[in-house]
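lol ok so funny story. i was supposed to be doing the assay writeup but got distracted and ended up predicting the structure for this chain instead. priorities right. anyway since i did it might as well share w the group, maybe its usefull for someone
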Amino acid sequence: MQKFRTASLSRKLFTSFIISFLLPMVLVSCLVSYLFASRQYREINRQAADNLKLISAYITKYISDIDNITKAPYYHNYFQSKSSIEDLSPYEQNQISAEIGQLLQLTTYSRDDFKDLVVMSNERVLYFNSTDWYQYLPTVNPLTSRQWYTAAMKQEGRVAIVPTDERDPDAGTIDTGSFYISRKLNNIFFPEQTNIIMVNLKTDALESLFSSLTSAVPLMILFTNDSGELIYSNTPVDRQLVDSLGNQTLSFNHNTWTNYSQKLDNYPLTAHVLLSDSYIHEQVTTFMTAILLCYAAAVCVAYLLFRRNNQWIKAPTYHIKSVLKALEEGNLDSRCQALPVREFNEIGSSINAMAHQLQEKIKNEYELLIAQKNLQFQALQSQIQPHFIINTIYSFITLNQIGEQETLNDAFYAFARLLRYVLSRDSATTVGKELDFLNDYCSLFVLRFGDRLSYEIRCPDELRHLELPKLLLQPLVENAVIHGIEPSETPCKLDISLERHGDTLYLIIVDDGVGFTKEQLNSPGSIGIKNVENRIHLWNPDVKLMIYRVGRSTLQILVIPPETQP
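and the output, tada:
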């Protein structure tokens, strides 16, 4: 320590460089590398998820086209009649077969992905188009035992998708050169008629499309049906991999893969996109290495520049440090002076601009806050609904017409006190003043509702001095009257009270009207309850508003904890 104190300034600067710049730079570089690597990892996984959506959309469109083709026989009268193939002569059968062939050829003329196409009726081949035609002759194993036939029967008119039955069960890998799409053609006029159409599709079209997606990122693309059978894979896979597709991660070819899967909405097919973890690690490692090398180079350059220009660095650094310290301590008027080194002068200009922007931002936010407070207060002042004022004036007219001058005078004074309270510019009040206002407010409601409404306000004298936001309770009373009491056909009572239980205060508004819920008050058009909750949050977020129904009464309760009380 003594040697450091007596060392030269250059040595001190070099030591400070090691401690204050180099070590933090290494830590920051590691942190930034990790953050960027994590971002790269997320980006690769996002690309895999996007490819899954793209693949799912394409295969859905592809299956939908085939689905429409399989519906083509419905245009023939045979599938809408009460005829049975056993009742037709050979000539009629050949005629129907030719006509069905013409229908199907119109939709499959330009397609080269069709390997076989078979139409059956009552377990007899009505039409087929295949290069291996002999497999559909009656002398071969019955077609009704084929998986595509039994699957179509189970689907009851919906599309069935099954793998080809030409796969070797003893082979190590699964051949996905083709797959079957079949469906049952239901005859609503003759349910006993059993009709099946099957299409054997080659996967060349899928391979040509998916090859462009896997050229940039090595992906395994697989499709399985609802039974877990492999329909298609863009690369040879073994049966163990297919059996483990239900897992999010799986192993294959001495590598771990992440499985992204999506079930098609309208078809019994699930798309799987497998992303190699080794590829991800390779990309992330390459990315991290590049970043670390860049940081290492930057540190070396910074060190060389420091060693060469330490005398030029010393004075501007001290000056900038002092200005930043002043800004940190809250002196936003502090500014950097002109510095002899261009780079440091630019830094000083940036710091000055930052300080100016910070001042402007604080000023603007403060002005915005004041404007928001003013707008909130203005909205608060207009919280008394126009229909309440109109109904009150009508009540005055009625009292004048019937000659109730004393009652009219009292009502006028109550209305004047109410307006004076509402229009005053105070944003805060006391419990006593708020309850006095509510007394005038409720008395005007009584003018309107008469014997249908009675009210009582109770508060201990020692609690009347407590402070709370002005007009906080008015929307709650209005909710009780408008939503609970007004719709009621029987006389109702409104009870307003302030109670202390332990150290907690409870502002309670109870009515025995028809009842309402907080959800109803939060519906469009019910602004009062939202205003109350926002003002409660600004006042103190620990204050809670609870609304619930007990028996025939609806309770609105403000729970005020001890720390909120003055």
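The mean pLDDT is 79. The chain has three domains: 52-278, 332-379, 382-564.
back to the writeup now i swear
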